[in-house]
Amino acid sequence: CQEQIPLCQDCGLAVVFVELGQEVQITGGDFEQAIQEGVRQGYGEGFLRKSLCHPLTRANTGDNTPAVIHTEIVPGDRLKITVVPKGGGSENMSRVFMLKPAEGVDGIIDRVVTTVREAGANPCPPIIVGVGIGGTFERAALLAKKALLREVGSPNPKPELAALEKALLQEVNDLGIGPQGLGGRITALAVHVLMQPCHIASLPVAVNIQCHASRHKEAIL
Question: Is pLDDT above 70 for 6?
Answer without folding.
Answer: no
